[in-house]
Amino acid sequence: xxxxxxxxxxxxxxxxxxxxxxxxxxxxxxxAVVAVAREPSRVKGRHERLTIVTGDVTDAACxxxxxxxxxxxxxxxxxxxxxxxxxxxDAARALVDGVSAGGRARxxxxxxAGSLEHPAGGTVSSxxxxxxxxxxxxxxxxxxxxxxxxxxxxxxxTYLSPAxxxxxxxxxxxxxxxxxxxxxxxxxxxxxxxxxxxxxxxDELERPRHxxxxxxxxx
Length: 219
Description:
Elements: E1 8-12, H1 17-28, E2 32-37, E3 50-54, H2 60-67, E4 72-75, H3 87-102, E5 106-110, H4 135-151, E6 157-161, E7 165-167, E8 176-178, E9 191-193, H5 194-206, E10 213-218
Parallel strand pairs: 1-2, 1-4, 2-3, 4-5, 5-6, 6-10, 7-9
Antiparallel strand pairs: 8-10
């Protein structure tokens, strides 16, 4: 799998802000995208290489069916906005079972930043001022990461945590990477725009550098 070979990429959660950005980035690079959503009508945009289907990321059989016809599967499903943070844990289990049963597809998961190590010590979510409203989602994302780690070689996975702040903005095409520690700039800030997060995600699909582990990005 190289950057010059067009990929067929399935994206669960393609109607969300991050999922749609990854889809747009992949299409712009010449890849084919299968946008999977519970409500397909919410998927924005139309393209000759975009296929929109109905699906549920917590259904392992659905994941397997989608994965069987793709080079890569991306999960950009959060659940926090709907008040269902635990959905990411259910999704993690279904993704491991479904992708491994589906065959050769790689798996890239849009993760959370809360479980990253903070420069001050502890995790991002343990820092003073971390909003209580974000903690259930952060803790669920951390448990989902453990599901993938426990899966070992059963599936070819990568978990991509964003910077502490991920927000709409410009696509610069540049970013720095880290492992389990938050990436901060000289001012101690950790941020990334959604378009540049999408750049990092598709870069990883084209040229895998973080197989079987979590990585993070920031400016």
